[in-house]
Amino acid sequence: MSSTDLLATEQKDSLGNFLESCDLVKFAKYEPGENELLGLHGSAVKLVEETEPHIESPDARSQTPDPR
Prior knowledge:
Layout: H1 9-27, H2 34-51, H3 58-62
């Protein structure tokens, strides 16, 4: 993960922190409180929104002037 150029440094840090927290729950049987869970959910949603591909709809392409 650290060698990819697909994520910004802040996104890599956020993902690393998220995965560390998940590991604590999964392997150490840590039980996070509601505020911590809401924070984790928010960071996951933010990362997904920041990294989702933006695909142009066919309608948007048909409105673009032909460069010829």
